[in-house]
Structures are given as structure tokens and as C-alpha cells.
Amino acid sequence: MPNRVSLKAVQAFEAAARLSSFALAADELLVTPSAVSHQIKLLEDQVGVRLFHRVHRAVVLTDAGRRYAEEITAAFARIDTATRNIGRTEKSDMLTIHCTPSFATQWLMPRLARFSSLNPDIDVHLNASATPADLTTAAVDLDIRYGTKLQPAGTMVLPFPTETIVPLCSPALAGGPHPIRAPEDLRHHTLIHSEICLVGWRDWMRQHRKVPLDITRGPRFDRSFMAISAAVDGLGVCLESLLLVERELDTGRLVAPFGLEGLRVQGYTCNLLKSRAELPKIRSFQNWLFWELERSAHA
User: Fold this and answer.
1) Residue 227, domain CATH
2) Which long-range contacts (CB under 8 A, 24 or more apart) does 53-56 make?
3) Domain housing 19
């Protein structure tokens, strides 16, 4: 028996077995009954087993034919299902993005609807975790990272615009019993620490040497979005990037009591494989991402 049988013959057999008739199978396949009979005879010769009993003008599956028909019918059903599924998604491309949790929560997710409206054929799969993705082995198109880390050869590293880090707090805290109008006013307030941030209160104090603050005290968080949330809730004053608090400033949930000028840092990068850089889905997201970043910086 050859390794492969004729797909045309298998298709004729499946129709005849399902309809219990060579004539009906021929109508479905738009061929003559004799063509169906010929294809099934060819299949029987190829597999070396009789598949149908010919009884007068009727055809009845043999036991071997019935078992074979069950398998073939199931296989064709899977093909039909796969075809329908791919038909639903043929206009979509999946873009898989790995991202730090804080950038994903504070900046990227509120804007994804804009990207999707501009690129309706691209579906985004966003995976947020602090552990960097290995672009060479993981099924990830882009990795948005914070901080510096040596990348494998063949990786394209695209730095974000520099960020501004300033003290931030709730309006109720800024205008409360101990108003915050000058750096020395922070002595009366709890300092919130973002342990993963590249700039901390110690760096801020170097610029304000005449302001003695106890930076050993205060709650500490290993994610910026948690420190920002704590500040919104009035727990204290956080030192965070304006890039991550655009919504909170726009809605008035946070204020910058000393203004929007502060320490500058280059923290985030977009990382991708050079070999995949020109894929349309990656190029579209990259162009959109840096356009939005520039817009945020100007805002």
C-alpha cells in the first residue's frame, strides 16, 4: 500500500459513506456517479481493503469501511472547523507585547483603544511582568523594559524620551492642615518610596540640601503603580515619573506641589529583534508608540 492515498478518492468515499449513495455523492461533488465509483475503487485498491458492498443498486459499508468512514468523517469535520476559524481571523495579526506592570497599567492600557482603532487588523496580546522576556526564545514581538540590562546580539534597543521625576500627592494633602508649598513642608508628611524607580528621595535631597528629611521612614513599594495609588489615597507624597501619572494629573487625583520641573532620567526602552523589525505589525506599533510618547512629553 502506498504511503499516501488520493485525497480526491478519500473525499468521494466520505461523501458516499455519509450519504449512503454514489449518486447523491456525485451530486454533492458535481461529478458523475461513475466518477465516484471509479475513485472509491481506486481507494480500495490503494488500501487493499473492500470498503463497500455493492448490493443491486445500493451500496453498504463493510465493517472495515464503516470504521474507516468514522475516522475520515471526524477528520473532515476538523478540517471544516479549522477553515471556519481561520476565516474569522484571517484579517487579524496577533501582536504580543511584554511590558513592565507599571507602564502597562499607568500608560499603555489607557491608550490601547487608540492603537486598535488605527489598526483594526492587529489584535494585541499584552503580558505584564517584572521579569524581562527573552526575545530569542519567547513568543514575544516587543519587550518594554525599565532600567538597563545587556541584551542579546541581534536585539534593537529603542530608548524612550527622558522622563521627569517630581513629588506628587493628593490635592487634599497638598492643601490640608500642613500645606505643601515649599520643599521644607515635606517634613510634616509621609514619604512614599518606589524601590524600583531609578530616582529616589535621596537623589531628590541632593538637589535640596537645605531640606532635612527622614528618608528611612515611610511605606515602600516595588511597583510604581502601587506607590502612585497610595499617593492618590492620601497616604503620603510619592516621587514618580510624570509619564506614569498623566491620567491622575488630568483628573485632579494627584497634584505636583512644586511644579512639573524635576530630575530627568532615561528609564524605559522598547526592545525587539532586528530580524523582525520590519514586520508590519511591529512597525505599526513602534511608530504609534513613539508618536504617543512624544505627545505625552509635549503635554
Assistant:
1) 3.40.190.10
2) none
3) 7-89
